[in-house]
Amino acid sequence: MLGYDSHPNVRTPGLGSNGLGGIPGGKPAYSFHMNGEGQLQPVPFPTDALIGPGIPRHARQINTLNHGEVVCAVTISNPTKYVYTGGKGCVKVWDISQPGSKVPVSQLDCLQRDNYIRSVKLLPDGRTLIVGGEASNLSIWDLVSPTPRIKAELTSNAPACYALAISPDTKEVALRVSHSSLMSSDRMKPRSGDWVVTINFLYATSITSLSIGSSVCFSCCSDGNIAVWDLHNQTLVRQFQGHTDGASCIDISADGTKLWTGGLDSTVRSWDLREGRQLQQHDFSSQIFSLGYCPTGEWLAVGMENSNVEVLHAAKSDKYQLHLHESCVLSLRFAACGKWFVSTGKDNLLNAWRTPYGASIFQVGHFSPEVVRSKESSSVLSCDISADDKYIVTGSGDKKATVYEVIY
């Protein structure tokens, strides 16, 4: 089975009606492998590309959450019960565990009324929500109170936050921060409980190695910097500098040691969190709007302004280029199993892809009849997949979020 599109109305930009190099049957290729010399070849998919344990068959719409404003950010609780949708000025909380029509169970007023929420992230224990958007401050919300309440704000020098990442649960993230910044106050003293901060002074290098357990937030700033926050002490502990335009998207490796960021400067960069330095830089011909790092390692998927999805090997020159979106790719998310990922775009589409070579598992709006009825009617700006890989949530420009059940 080759990487051909079974839906000839979807054309690969710039490749003509027959895709690359004349495709049998007139159906354009949509998945290409790029070798070390930069040559593109259609991908011969393995026979088990679309079958086997953990590979979905399609997705079925089960809920519509009428937020009332454009939904720029979504996230799902673990276990699957609540969906958080971010729009203008506020985050709404929905209980999707009960059948019937949905109304929000809570509303978190985070920003000024006309400022959009751009990212919402739950801490691994599900008790705290971090919210960022078109403002210089991030807000930290306590979700275990009788009603959610804001318990702190983090203020940066940048006017906006485009994306957030949280250090993985039960992992220790080691950061290197300037000696002087720590000595300026006692804010980094070790505390008892779950949020433990340990400091070892390395006098020879004037650098401090800071180990933080499950308490680090990374924010992509509109000035291109990546801010690193100690959530327990509510302080900025360092910034990664490198992007020359806004940092738009971010993901962290499952072991908590490496960070990946994409930017409006058309670069993707990886950062060593233990050494506090940039490891790699990948240059593209298009702005980067979304990315995700495979939970099982090795592969990074990147969504671009030019409608392409590219899947890069973290250590080799192997790369796949996927052409099914018809406009810019606005969000991207890997399933927890790592076997597949989804991307959404300005073209109103939700695509599910096989890792890493990009066989199209399903496409909301273009595949089976039950999926066609759930076609998004506006740009799909955000997405998330539940921790058990059973549900997908999208946020769209038509002021709603949509919940899909993943069918295996």
Which short descriptors sum up this protein?
mainly beta; 33 strands; 408 residues; globular; 46% strand; four-stranded antiparallel β-sheet; 2 helices; disordered N terminus; Methylamine Dehydrogenase, Chain H
Quick rundown:
The protein is mainly beta and 408 residues long. The protein has helices at residues 179-183, 369-372, and strands spanning 31-34, 40-42, 58-65, 73-76, 82-86, 90-95, 106-109, 117-122, 128-133, 137-142, 149-155, 161-166, 172-178, 197-202, 207-213, 216-221, 226-230, 235-240, 247-252, 258-263, 267-272, 277-283, 288-293, 299-304, 309-313, 319-322, 329-334, 340-345, 350-354, 360-364, 380-385, 391-396, 401-407.
Write the layout of secondary structure elements.
Elements: E1 31-34, E2 40-42, E3 58-65, E4 73-76, E5 82-86, E6 90-95, E7 106-109, E8 117-122, E9 128-133, E10 137-142, E11 149-155, E12 161-166, E13 172-178, H1 179-183, E14 197-202, E15 207-213, E16 216-221, E17 226-230, E18 235-240, E19 247-252, E20 258-263, E21 267-272, E22 277-283, E23 288-293, E24 299-304, E25 309-313, E26 319-322, E27 329-334, E28 340-345, E29 350-354, E30 360-364, H2 369-372, E31 380-385, E32 391-396, E33 401-407
Antiparallel strand pairs: 1-2, 1-26, 3-33, 4-5, 5-6, 6-7, 8-9, 9-10, 10-11, 12-16, 13-15, 14-15, 16-17, 17-18, 19-20, 20-21, 21-22, 23-24, 24-25, 25-26, 27-28, 28-29, 29-30, 31-32, 32-33
